[in-house]
Fold these 2 entries.
Entry 1:
Amino acid sequence: MITRRDFYCWGTNLLGGLITLGLAVPGVGYLLDPLLRGRPRAGGYRPVTRLGELPEGVPRVFAVIEAREDAWVTYPQEPVGSAWLVRQPEGAAVPVVAYTAECPHLGCAVSLAEGGRGFLCPCHQSRFDLQGRPLNAVPPRGMDRLDVQLSDDSDPVVLVRFQRFRTASQEKIPRV
Ligand code: FES
């Protein structure tokens, strides 16, 4: 026989349990959200400039703007790095070549060498030609190429997939 006291006791426990469950659901959902959404998006192709803005054979540097995203947060658009673009001659297999501006030696920003006939890193004097090949023994490898696509417009947009690579390594190894 259930006494009134037992009934109130069970009822109170049941009500407390339901309230606790109601409060726990959003918290559990928040913690599981990254798993339910899958892995964070990898860096995609970002618009950098228009093909018509690039003079043939003259390197131009551009900031790559991206909205970063980790498991819980999407950050506002901000520069994530810089890329040197070199428009290739008419009829070349690829219309634009892109290199990350991060020096493969220790990661300083690579500049245009005097006269614009190659690249120079001011930190320890790495030098590269316009094809990104090393011209001295300082850098462990050439400048790192980035993937490029063009949009389908009549004045195509140059899209670059920005990536970072390990420095001080002879191999081009993406950093994650
Ligand atoms: S970081 Fe560029 S030469 Fe050392």
Entry 2:
Amino acid sequence: MHELRRNPVPAANADSPAADSPAADFPVSAPANAPKVGFVSLGCPKALVDSEQILTQLRAEGYETAKSYDGADLVIVNTCGFIDAAVQESLDAIGEALAENGKVIVTGCLGAKKDASGQDIVMKVHPKVLAVTGPHAVAEVMNSVHTHLPKPHEPFFDLVPDHGVKLTPKHYAYLKISEGCNHRCSFCIIPSMRGDLVSRPIGELMIEAENLFKAGVKELLVISQDTSAYGVDVKFRSGFWNGRPVKTHMTQLVEALAQLAKQYGAWVRLHYVYPYPHVDQVIPLMGNGHVLPYLDIPLQHAHPDVLKRMKRPASGEKNLDRIQAWRAINPELTIRSTFIAGFPGETEAEFDYLLDFLKEAQIDRLGCFAYSPVEGAAANALPDPVPEEVREERRARVMLLQEEISAKRLQAKVGKTVRVLVDEVNTREAIGRSAADAPEIDGVVHIKRSLAPGKKLAVGQFADVLVSKADAHDLWATVA
Ligand code: SF4
């Protein structure tokens, strides 16, 4: 029996209770037929933490750790790529694992390293390894383990499906890409409750997205507090997906999701996007039929002084110019936004400025709230609060204007064919949503069943429908 080189669980730390008793960390033992993974951990303490996280996940999923190469069904080598000697030690460790076991997954710093010609060093020296990732890639490593060493079904361990427990209907799901927020909008207390922005690793998000698509999700809704800021907290560091580096950045995430959605014939919809310049790069991606030409941009106001008092992100951006430039690239683009009427200090002139902006911008979908003080929000201390009846009256004026705008924009769709995703089928009609309609917040498309003899629609199915009528919120159509 050949012992593993450096194995942080059983071999390297004989005092660890886990060394001799795999059950010591867990209230129940792994099943007798649990697949066994050998682990070789090299490198610095940061690499050690990565190893611990991978081992924790392996054990949580019911895998066993093996102490020797021949007792393992597969070996993971966590490498170091710092100095030449460390690179050589890592390459030797991979070679040894391949020779002794044959099934090897490589992770860690050397996995991200390329030679002068741009070739992956690990693949060049050891082309037989099953998969290679860089550091901090727990989800990516686990994905490779699932591919090359799937667990047998265990009714007591496998109570949760790969895509987790979802509260949404089977055909759409939310993908939360980050938590918290780095902004300090004066009317909002989210940062004080949830803290600063923490972006989820991109490899983990892509695996979650793929599991959702595999489970039948046809529309993935990307959410966060600020989708455009994705990756700022980790300085846009590279993660791994499908064996290649991908930056923790909004545009790269959307590109990767676009590819995946195309593969599974699904839609991706973007929410809570702020109008930063880099969002311009996302608009062209909306032409492929999978990233929907839809942006949910919470603008909250239009007047620069009100935006300043609100401390809004991207308040200096020329939002009107930006919206017009986006529509020039993709005339199908639907813009949803929310606004606040009667923010402290809002003058009649500032409110009129907002109405003029709305007339010009022709926002497709709009929600407007009368300002309401939230306990703990900095805006409560601002001077010149607007009386409640004025706030309400201004909100009503915005909504009245929006009715007109929305009715006109929806009327322009009559006679056109649009693709819908069917949400509901009842005895009278089917109800679907087009690219312009996010679930719960926007309108719907009513599809007359009687005008489509022989056509059967099912929930979660895409259909092309011919629009015959519109009001200020919804469309009516027949199957095209
Ligand atoms: S309203 Fe402002 S502070 Fe609150 S979550 Fe949104 S961007 Fe962050």
